[in-house]
């Protein structure tokens, strides 16, 4: 049997495997619209890094089809204001480049508060980055939240 079809495990895969947490490793770039036909884009979540005026860095996770409500996230997180971390400062803050931020890797290195939009809980599962561009994981939403100590809340903009 050829081994060349087997994907190399990312650090996120390794962390989850070591913890005994079930997940699927996926290879596609959802941010650039390259999603397989069997994946609904609304189940793909982006991991955004922000800075709160009171808390410092924090993480907001919501579907890539939605926009973040900075006002809602600020209120929920105990801040008056939150702003996106400038892209030039992203890697030194989270340890990841734009498009590769993920809650598992960030929690592994930092204790930033993490907020996941409640739609993930309603869906039951979610797809997030696996820490490398073009790599993702599909995981049970509650399991992920429990593992990274995240809170579910309505953080998306009302359209």
Report on the architecture of this protein.
This protein has 159 residues and is of the alpha/beta class. The chain is 28% helix and 26% strand. It starts with 10 loop residues before the first helix and ends in a 6-residue tail after the last strand.
Q: What class would the helix/strand composition place it in? A: alpha/beta
Instruction: Note the quaternary state here.
Output: single chain
Number of helical runs? 6
How many β-strand stretches?
8
- Provide mean pLDDT, rounded: 91
Strand order of the largest sheet: 4-2-3-5-8
Encode the helix/strand succession as letters.
Answer: HEEEHEHHEHEEHE
Major sheet size, sense and barrel closure: 5 strands, mixed
The fraction of residues assigned to DSSP E strands is 25-35%
Low-pLDDT parts are none
Q: How much helix is in the residues?
A: 25-40%
Shape estimate: globular
């Amino acid at each position: 049997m050829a081994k060349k079809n087997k994907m190399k495990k990312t650090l996120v895969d390794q962390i989850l495997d070591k913890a005994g947490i079930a997940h699927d490793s996926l290879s596609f770039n959802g941010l650039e619209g390259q999603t397989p036909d069997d994946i609904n884009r609304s189940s793909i979540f982006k991991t955004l890094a922000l800075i709160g005026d009171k808390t410092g860095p924090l993480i907001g996770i919501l579907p890539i089809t939605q926009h973040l409500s900075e006002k809602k996230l600020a209120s929920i997180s105990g801040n008056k204001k939150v702003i996106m971390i400038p892209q030039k400062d992203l890697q030194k803050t989270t340890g990841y480049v734009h498009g590769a931020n993920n809650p598992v890797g960030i929690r592994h290195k930092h204790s930033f508060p993490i907020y996941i939009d409640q739609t993930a809980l309603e869906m039951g599962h979610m797809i997030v980055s696996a820490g490398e561009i073009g790599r993702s994981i599909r995981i049970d939403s509650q399991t992920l939240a429990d593992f990274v100590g995240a809170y579910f809340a309505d953080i998306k903009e009302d359209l």
